Amino acid sequence: MAAEIHSRPQSSRPVLLNKIEGHQDAVNAAVLIPKEDGVITVGEDRTIRVWLKRDSGQYWPSIYHTVSSPCSSMSYHHDSKRIFIGQDNGAIVEFEISEDFNKITFVKTYPAHQSRVSAIVYCPESEWVISTGHDKSVSWMCSRSGSMLGRHYFSSWASCLQFDHDTKHVFVGDYSGQITLLKLDQNTYSIITTLKGHEGSIGSLCWDPVQRLLFSGASDHSVIMWDIGGRKGRMLLLQGHHDRVQSLCYLQLTRQLVSCAADGGITVWNMDISREEAPQWLESDCCQKCEQPFFWNLKQMWDSKTIGLRQHHCRKCGKAVCGKCSSKRSTYPVMGFEFQVRVCDDCYETIKEEDRTSLATFHEGKHNISHMNMDSSRGLMVTCGSDRVVKVTHLT
Question: Which residues form the FYVE-type domain (predicted)?
């Protein structure tokens, strides 16, 4: 059973059901097979494996297939049983899995990238295979012919992507911490906007097409919710991890966001509440509370014959303050601060005890988590990572 750090009875709690072991190297992607007791995994050991649950309750490999290069990413379409495997050499290989999940058949190879494929999305409506890679590009290819339709290059490695099938908008996160929104067409594209808010590389994206919300997780240990549909540029910052966030999943029915980090931390966020947007940090040459100069304000230091102070920022109001005027720390979950952060003394007095009540629960997956997949209809979650272990858990 997954060890729980903080308990909140009203929120989901992951309970370990099965542990799948067998890969000889890191497992880079794992997906639950809809309506089946099965899991598909791919890894650095160049294998594609389909695990089916036997009468004994254990998962056994029904398919074990080896390809030419380490498997870095995967997209599985259950209705057609088509599976697309991204490889370290930049190619995407398509297979078809039999109805009984006991046979895998090679279909074609797509010349997608010049180096490691980081993410894949298959769009059956337009017959596109969209992917990002470490060659700093996003590409989209025709799944009928296997030919390249278009490509766009970024200034950094493209690390993850999400695609809106109705509008044909693609979101691409990169290692510089930016998220680029593009509108794709059959052979052309246009850049819509760039989202900037993270201070580290983007590790995961999650798109909710119903509410038109985009969630991003990054190496700065934070998650950001972007209000794309409202077109207000609204940005909610969620801080509840101690390591880089590598996988995200939004549960539409319960309005919960599940985020997983490299240290095994699993956070379940309650998004069915009204949250406050974190303020922009203000800049000033002196403390906006006591008006003492900061250390770069040479003129005021000379005039007042004082030594300059270090600048800090209150996370609640955003004002530039000195250490003496921001001596307090507090959680403020409605603004996404589940851990204690610096607040100015004035804001600290306005925070009531009920304002500190957590709006998330924290759990320990007990292994490195680089990828997560969920089946919300059954309340199942599968996680995998560099420790070669795949875990199937149930959100109770």
Answer: 281-352
